[in-house]
Amino acid sequence: MSQLQRPVIIQSQSIKLCCPRVAYRPPLFQRRRQSIHTKTVTDHDINRLASSPLHPLTLADLVKHGRPPLTTAQLLTSANFTLSILPARLAHRIQSLRNLPFIVVSNPHITKIHSNYLHSLSTLLPWAEREITTLEDEIKFAEVMADLVQTHSNTISILARGFLEARKYISPTDVTRFLDEHLRARIGTRLIAEQHIALHLSSQPHRKIMHEPEEEEDMGYNGVIDTKLRPAKIVQQCENIVGEICELKYGVRPHVVINGEPEYTFAHVPVHLEYIITELLKNAFRATVEQAHEREAIEVTIAPLPDDSPEAEYNEAIRKHGEGHVITGADQGNTDLASRCFTGKSTSPSPTADQQIRPLAHSTPGVTIRIRDRGGGIAPENYEHIWDYSFTTFNDDQASTSLSGGPGGGGGMDALNAISGPGGDGAHSLAGLGYGLPLGRAYAEYFGGGIAVQSMWGWGTDVYLSLRGVGRVEDNPYI
Asked: Which residues cross the membrane (predicted)?
């Protein structure tokens, strides 16, 4: 059997995103959590929590408890902060799902997501009226956070298939509006939960209680934030994964040349960068090979962003683009704008402050990454749709093919789509659903970055990814 004819068996390879720090599954995920207590969630609970203003997540929230390993007091403070903001976020998501048209919510996939949120809220309610004051309670609470993260690991793919099946009953515009809000809110919820889990796993006080061996401390990390993240290393790791799958699919693979400042480092959340780079390289590899230009290098240029003042940057963004283009609480899914369009009224008050997501200090190193390919560019008729959730435009035949996993239940699947998404969405689950670029842009924009695309039709494409770092964590005033 030739290499081009060889079946593409992605699941057995257990392909994950690149950074071992992110791809790992800690003991909290591996142990069976049989001791988690739940409480029945009532409509009154949901209405009460959904009526409370949401806490707009900032980068300072992720690092204000200190650099690991945390002391007992710091670890308890992190747990109580996490507990103080997650129940309302979950209630807002439940309320927004309930405000979809009834026939849409009745879809079994959408119902599954609704049930998952109810389950997670039911695990938090027993803790909501109390304060976590002991390490024993903190360990139990960390189990609850692990359960929450695992419960929602496939949210994106389940929602995608639910809306695909219900596409006759809701417009593509309404689906896009709902998903933009819901998926951005999910980014924040996962960050909050995973940050506490990471702080828990890297701190020492609970190890004596659990009789766990001490691990070598990783000084580069503050929870899920890598304070010495080197973009060039992420690019190389993602190139290896995408290249191997490309070679399986096409029998050839382009190579990547990294220039600019490959030794540059800054502080950011690596899983975000990994997902975005993977998506962008997938597009570049596919276009390059299909244009038979695999001998042409894909050029990745890494350049530090200027250390601009956040205030100056904020004012300049308003001057150029207006208020609507500045990153706000609404951009993080902190207001239920999508739900409002279905009911004619708001299901929740606006946040107390519609804040820009600002970095920790005036001097905030960031990075711009340009990915240049010779893949022929983007056809003019497709250019304006590159940020759409593509499945919203599927016809019946395309929808049937996607839902069945391709002709023959998966045989025709595009291998370059079969890479795990952020937050654990499985290998086959997102394939062909058109989530890559819009979800990548959501991750880039969440903390004030962005993606811009410039296409030269008939030649190639330049993609510019900008990410603002979290600042100099060791100097920030919150620690």
From this structure: none
Indicate if the pLDDT at residue 209 is higher than 60: no
pLDDT at residue 91, rounded to an integer? 95
The pLDDT tens digits of the residues spanning 1-32 come to 433 333 333 333 333 333 334 333 444 444 44
pLDDT 10s digits, 287-306: 999 999 999 999 999 999 87
Burial 94-120 (b: 16+ CB within 10 A, else e): bbbbbbbeeebbebebbeebbebbbbb
Residue ranges in 129-171 assigned as alpha helix (H):
135-151, 155-165
Burial of 405 (0-12, 13-18, 19+ CB in 10 A): middle
**Which residue's entry shows tokens 């298939």?**
161
**Is residue 192 assigned to a domain?**
yes
Least-confidence region, from 1-10, 28-37, 114-123 = 1-10
| pLDDT at residue 468, rounded to an integer | 82
Q: Which segments of 316-440 are extended strands (E)?
A: 366-373
With 0-12 / 13-18 / 19 or more C-beta atoms within 10 angstroms meaning exposed / middle / buried, residue 30 is exposed
CATH number of the domain enclosing 109: 3.30.565.10
Is residue 391 within 8 A of residue 438, CB to CB? The reply is: no
Burial class (CB in 10 A: 0-12, 13-18, 19+), 470: buried
pLDDT for the residue numbered 322: 44
User: For residue 433, which amino acid is it?
Assistant: L
Residue 247 sits at φ, ψ, to 5 deg, of: -65, -35
| 436-451: pLDDT as tens digits | 788 888 888 887 788 9
State how far Cα 423 lies from the chain centre.
Answer: 6
Would you say residue 11 lies in a domain?
no
How many of the other CB atoms lie within 10 Å of CB of 454? Answer: 13
In terms of Cα–Cα distance, which of 428, 408, 410, 412 is closest to 420? 428
Q: Which residues contact 241 (CB under 8 A, 6 or more apart)?
A: 15, 17, 18, 278, 419
Bridge partners (DSSP) of residue 299 are 257, 372
Is the residue at 4 inside a domain? Answer: no
Query: How sure is the predictor about 62, in pLDDT bands with cuts at 50, 70 and 90?
Result: confident
Domain, as residue range, for 42: 17-475
Look up residue 30 and give its amino acid. Answer: Q
Tokens of residue 462, six digits: 């330049």
Residues contacting 153, CB < 8 A, separation 6+: 423, 424, 425
Closest CA to 56 of 444, 355, 348, 447: 355
| Residue 5 forms part of a structural domain | no
Number of domains in the chain: 1
